Amino acid sequence: MEVNLTFGDGTSGAHEQSDEFAASVLSLYRWLVAEPELRGHARVSTGTRQAEQGRMGDGLDLVNVVLANSIALGGLVTAVAAWRGSRPRPPQVRLERDGVVIDLRDCSPETVEQVLRLWNQGPGASPPPQPAPAPAPADGDDE
Fold first, then answer.
1. Is 140 helix (H, G, I), strand (E, B) or coil?
2. Nearest 5 degrees, angle CA 81-CA 79-CA 119?
3. Is the entire prediction scored with pTM above 0.85?
4. How far apart are the C-alpha atoms of 119 and 32, rounded to whole Å?
5. What's the rounded Cα separation, in Å, for the pair 35 and 41?
6. 25 closest CA partner among 94, 77, 106
7. What counts of helices (H) and strands (E) characterise the chain?
8. Quick check: 111 and 95 in contact, CB under 8 A?
9. pLDDT tens for residues 46-100?
C-alpha cells in the first residue's frame, strides 16, 4: 500500500514555501526512516509531484511511503503525528492513499484514530454509523 505525504494545501506556492516544504520533506523523511515501528515494514523515499503541463516542478515536495501491510499504516500515521508535534511550527501534512486525501492539522490520538478509521473503510464503504440522538428529557406533560 502506498501513501504520499505532502505539505501545505497541496498546491505549489511561492519559492520561499517551496524551500520550507523541501526542508520539511527531508526532516520527515529522516524521522520516518529512523522510526522503529516502520523499520522492515516500509520503504520511504522522497520525490516531486507530477508538475502540471507546461510548468516545471518546484523541487523536492513529497515523501512517498510504501507499506508492507496495513498494520504498518497505524505506525506511519502515529509517526507523522509525532513528527508534527516535535516541530516548533508544525506544517499541515496531507496524507494521500488510494485517492483519499486527509489533511493532518493536529497530533491528537483522536485524529490518528479518525484517519485510520477512514482509510480502513476501503473504497466505496459507507461512513461509520453516527450515534443515535439522546432522548429528549421528559417535561412531565403527557398528551
1. coil
2. 75
3. no
4. 20
5. 11
6. 94
7. 3, 5
8. no
9. 988 765 444 445 566 899 999 998 888 889 988 999 999 899 888 889 999 988 8
